[in-house]
Amino acid sequence: MLLTILLSACLVLCSLAVDNPHKRAPKRVHKTHASQIRRPLVKRQESSYLTPQTKKFAVNGSAIPLVDFDIGESYAGTLSIDHNSSNLNQLYFWFFPSNNPAASDEITIWLNGGPGCSSLDGLLQENGPFLWQSGTYKPQPNPFTWVNLTNMVYVDQPIGTGFSPAAPGAPAKIRNEVDIGRDFAGFWLNFMNTFNLTGRKVYITGESYAGQYIPYIASYMLDQNNTDYFNVKGIQINDPSIGSDAVLIQAPAVTALNNYQNIFALNQSFLHDINSRAERCGYFQFMEEALTFPPTGKFTAPNDTAPGCDVWDDIIAAAVYVNPCLNLYHLTDFCPFLSDELGFPSLGVGPNNYFNRSDVQAAINAPPTNYVVCGDDSLFPNGDESPPSSFTALPSVIERTNNVLVGSGLLDFLLLTNGTLMTLNNMTWNGRQGFSKAPSDLFYVPYDPSLNFVLAETENQPIPAVPVGLVAGGGIMGTTHTERGLTWVTVDLAGHEIPQYTPGAAYRQLEFLLGRISNLTEIGLFTTQQASNGSTASL
Ligand SMILES: *[C@@H]1O[C@H](CO)[C@@H](O)[C@H](O)[C@H]1NC(C)=O
Ligand SMILES: *[C@@H]1O[C@H](CO)[C@@H](O)[C@H](O)[C@H]1NC(C)=O
Ligand SMILES: *[C@@H]1O[C@H](CO)[C@@H](O)[C@H](O)[C@H]1NC(C)=O
Ligand SMILES: *[C@@H]1O[C@H](CO)[C@@H](O)[C@H](O)[C@H]1NC(C)=O
Ligand SMILES: *[C@@H]1O[C@H](CO)[C@@H](O)[C@H](O)[C@H]1NC(C)=O
Ligand SMILES: *[C@@H]1O[C@H](CO)[C@@H](O)[C@H](O)[C@H]1NC(C)=O
Ligand SMILES: *[C@@H]1O[C@H](CO)[C@@H](O)[C@H](O)[C@H]1NC(C)=O
Ligand SMILES: *[C@@H]1O[C@H](CO)[C@@H](O)[C@H](O)[C@H]1NC(C)=O
Ligand SMILES: *[C@@H]1O[C@H](CO)[C@@H](O)[C@H](O)[C@H]1NC(C)=O
Ligand SMILES: *[C@@H]1O[C@H](CO)[C@@H](O)[C@H](O)[C@H]1NC(C)=O
Ligand SMILES: *[C@@H]1O[C@H](CO)[C@@H](O)[C@H](O)[C@H]1NC(C)=O
Ligand SMILES: *[C@@H]1O[C@H](CO)[C@@H](O)[C@H](O)[C@H]1NC(C)=O
């Protein structure tokens, strides 16, 4: 079976003769290194972004501690959340201009969630120009950096998050998403002015609790009727917090457990008990109703506080007894814990303080900070007082942009795929509720050219191994559906953080958000890949 897969993959990708890999291994001495396989990052000749005004934000791309390559042109620092430049409340940004000519009229924002998580998590572990991911030895260039496609800015927000400074006690005054939107828009005005970006199309992307932030920020921006600064053209939210936990987490948990039984490996008596509880709590019946297309009316959430109905926590507890290295952000992690420079999401041993190093902070114009990737639990002292984004903010952004992507990784056990789909199916936008048919279109991801090399290495098993570097799979990777300005897309092998686990899929989704391809089912190269005849792919 495995051999068949390898063989057919080989037929598609290459024309290697497959003979006994064990015999072949010692004979083959590979001299090629990953760095020779990859074209180096193209260095910008002269920059229109470097001005007397931006000079103080310039980051020396060759002087990032522990990074032994040039990460390219970038600017970082803090800017006030209002017109008062000496306001102590500021947001930290790290801005990477793109060399892609198609990006000249765009700017794309990335936000992590939490609440209270730094967007440098996304930069370092998901989609930045260099990555230092769990279990890897040192930072590496990211062939799937989103900077290949567009101008990216990573922002730590709200105030008090990551490197964003806050006046004493200020974060605790954030009550709701209107406060979040107002502070972000205040910062954004200063950012757009500083880098002379006025008039550009603005895209906002992110994941998890940013599924609450982003629709509200986009909504706040669109409300300003000011396309010089707030020309929002689309948003993408992955594995987003958009509804109630009862729907997002509890109702779909046991169905997901049953689907991934082999991965969880829980005992029969537990499975039997948890299934009968899910039945009694009305979760299966709710799913049947909420996954009917088109939906027949608004749904009433099941009562997840009734006795025995917190099935999700019980599954996690049982799962940790069997697999103590369970990663609820990515179900297929097993022991040992991988080391992790941010201490998240893995609990591995080793330094986990990259952004807490003073040399790193100095190199990236970050204010000296006792940095934690996810911190400040004083945010929203009374909880987030805004309703879930799917109630009004998200539909309003869909109606005003007709360009919203909601992604979901099937291996995420924190915010579950079916929970997100059910939440969307309860939502009304552009005149109707939910989707008219069950999502079934196939999501196609182009093959990474380096897969030939990876396949050869995998078959040959050279000892010592030749480093392969960062790679991504391709082919049919999930299901997608577009209706009335909203695109839903699942990724089979992704966890909570889609760009981290399936970088090619995430890159493809961004190509779609930016309008570089017409849909996610289309088969063809990445828009930034060279066709084998040398011409740039024009898809
Ligand atoms: C950037 O850093 C490198 C490595 O430390 C150094 O050689 C180079 O002079 C620096 N460039 C600038 C413009 O400061
Ligand atoms: C600007 O912010 C500083 C620091 O918070 C404050 O002292 C000052 O009064 C503010 N200025 C204006 C005009 O609001
Ligand atoms: C700002 O950008 C515009 C093009 O978008 C350019 O014409 C103008 O000269 C720039 N202004 C400054 C001060 O760089
Ligand atoms: C934006 O335009 C809408 C519709 O014309 C209007 O209701 C709203 O008050 C305007 N908002 C601002 C901030 O001017
Ligand atoms: C989602 O729900 C449907 C309907 O119950 C089920 O067939 C499917 O397997 C579920 N998917 C996951 C990943 O749990
Ligand atoms: C469905 O949407 C309505 C608002 O349109 C909301 O009141 C209700 O709570 C939602 N149901 C669920 C299960 O989230
Ligand atoms: C949910 O169940 C709890 C515990 O049985 C009960 O106190 C509460 O009233 C129920 N909520 C609803 C909305 O039925
Ligand atoms: C089966 O799993 C449950 C949940 O972890 C546990 O309470 C129970 O003891 C297990 N049964 C056996 C025989 O270990
Ligand atoms: C960050 O560094 C400071 C000293 O610079 C230290 O006191 C603090 O414990 C560190 N934080 C973490 C999470 O390691
Ligand atoms: C997707 O785009 C391709 C190429 O433009 C087109 O042929 C195809 O019909 C489109 N499919 C859908 C489902 O829109
Ligand atoms: C990103 O750009 C580099 C340099 O042009 C290129 O080698 C790489 O293939 C690009 N990545 C993708 C996914 O197209
Ligand atoms: C090169 O290949 C691309 C993609 O297969 C194709 O669209 C293009 O027409 C080819 N160009 C030439 C000059 O053959």
TrEMBL record:
PROSITE patterns reported in the protein's UniProt record: CARBOXYPEPT_SER_HIS, CARBOXYPEPT_SER_SER
Name of the protein: Carboxypeptidase
Gene Ontology molecular function: serine-type carboxypeptidase activity
InterPro entries associated with the record: AB_hydrolase_fold, Peptidase_S10, Ser_caboxypep_his_AS, Ser_caboxypep_ser_AS
Signal peptide start and end residues: 1-17
Upper classification of the organism: Eukaryota, Fungi, Dikarya, Ascomycota, Pezizomycotina
Catalytic class of the enzyme: hydrolase
The family this protein is said to belong to: Belongs to the peptidase S10 family.
Entry keyword annotation includes Cell membrane: no
EC number: 3.4.16.-
Any GO BP: proteolysis
Entry keyword set: Carboxypeptidase, Glycoprotein, Hydrolase, Protease, Signal
